Amino acid sequence: MQETFYGWYLKCQSDTGTLAVIPAIHHTKHRTTCSIQLITDNTAQTVTFPGKAFCRRGKMISIEKNYFSPRGMRLSVNTPNLSVKGVLQFEALTPLKYDIMGPFALIPFMECRHHVWSMRHAVRGTVSVNEKNYSFQNAYGYWEGDSGRSFPKEYAWTQCLFPEGSLMLSVADIPMAGLRFTGIIGVVLWKGREYRLATYLGARAVTIENGVLRIVQNDMRLEVRLLEKNPHPLNAPVMGNMTRTIHESAACTAYYRFQKAGQTLFSIKNSRASFEYEYST
């Protein structure tokens, strides 16, 4: 059995709350398990299931009575520490023009592959988490995924939904053919237009330090600053085994500035940004 993992990240955001759900399956040499991780503004919870509970058919995942698809998700979890129940509907998904990995999607044996299924979509419904209701009306969502063997040793990831668009950025230490390099994938969706920043398009990181990322690509500049953390522990894969602990702020304060051809398209401070910063500096 290969040591691998496959998982989705579905974020739902309203003016009053954030809910992110991660259904995943993980294979090691000795066993297969699956899990649902759930993150809110204030907590993070993990529920583990036997591997046979996981079913994937195309763009649909089910884990026992929990269902995830482009149309939405249905949650039904009942453990001594966690009770989750509700239905969320997705509409008007915004997929990318082509695979976020670009030509790297064709390279076998990569440590981790990233997928972006929708940069922005409408979310409607209500989910109860330990008797606290999260209501999503006129709300928005984001949907991505990861697969491979392990998360990068060091990386930063951020995602933000704002009134006129959405963005995601991942900067990571990438091992390949005995070498290591800083890999970048990012998308800015602004007023209906997609701007992509990626290593395979010439993007480079001029700053990775203390929660600050500055990316340069031709005439585009993206600056990201983690201003106020709100971290909660999550499980992450190491050779398929969910033994690493990372920390995600599902709703924190961050600053984003995006420039093209010397013009600032936006400069935003957002209190509902999502951020993982796993660099030592």
Can you put this structure into words, describing what you see?
With 281 residues, the chain is mainly β. 0% of the residues lie in helices and 70% in strands. It has no helices and 21 strands. The strands form two sheets. The protein has an eleven-stranded antiparallel beta sheet with strand order 4-3-2-1-11-10-9-8-7-6-5, with no helix packed on it. The radius of gyration is 18 Å and the shape is globular.
What brief labels describe this structure?
single chain; 281 residues; mainly beta; 11-stranded antiparallel beta sheet; 10-stranded antiparallel beta sheet
The shape, in one word, is globular
Name the structural class.
mainly beta
Provide the β-strand percentage band. Answer: over 45%
H/E element sequence: EEEEEEEEEEEEEEEEEEEEE
Helix content: under 10%
Integer average pLDDT? 95
Number of strands: 21
Q: What is the overall number of helices?
A: 0
Q: Going across the biggest sheet, name each strand in turn.
A: 4-3-2-1-11-10-9-8-7-6-5
* N-to-C span: 36 Å
